[in-house]
Amino acid sequence: MSEVRPWVGCDITVAEFVLSADCEFINFSKKHMVNIPEGEEYEGPEFTWRELITWMFSAPFDPRDDTAYIPTQYIAERIKGAGFDGIIYDSALSVDGYNVTLFNAESAKGVRREKACVTYVEVRASFAPIEEAQG
């Protein structure tokens, strides 16, 4: 639910889905990767790109910026064109969370839905002093 950045009093529909077809996902998650290749040959540019793409998909953007999602939309279209059915990537808002983007909604069937009313939102921050401009 945190991905929609709700406020206290906000109503959200939460649903559970099951895949109704076999789907192949590309997994950019750093926390939920499976079958991770090991060895020095896998420590170079390929994994640098994986980290960059993970950051791009999970980074929160200002919803008023209608061009912010263009790079991720382009990457998603390329991945879709390569035959994948969706993308898995880490959440920027939940330490242990991840997101699944399914390109074809007909590949999943809703099995349960509930209305949730947000009653509490927690924000944690770290603070650093602001240096005064010298001049």
List keywords for this structure.
135 residues; alpha+beta; two-stranded antiparallel ribbon; 2 helices
| Terminal CA distance | 47 Å
How would you describe the oligomerization state of the chains in this entry? single chain
Structural class: alpha+beta
Number of domains: 1
Roughly what is the average pLDDT, rounded to an integer? 83
**Can you tell me the residue ranges where pLDDT is under 50 for at least 5 consecutive residues?**
none
The main sheet comes to:
3 strands, mixed
Strand content: 15-25%
Blueprint of the fold:
Elements: E1 11-19, E2 25-27, H1 45-58, H2 70-81, E3 86-90, E4 98-102, E5 108-117
Parallel strand pairs: 2-3
Antiparallel strand pairs: 1-5, 3-4
Folded structure, characterized:
The protein is built from two helices and five strands. With 135 residues, the protein is α+β, with helices and mostly antiparallel strands. It has one domain (2-117). The strands form two sheets. A three-stranded mixed sheet has the order 2-3-4, covered by helices on one side. It starts with 10 loop residues before the first strand and ends in an 18-residue tail after the last strand.
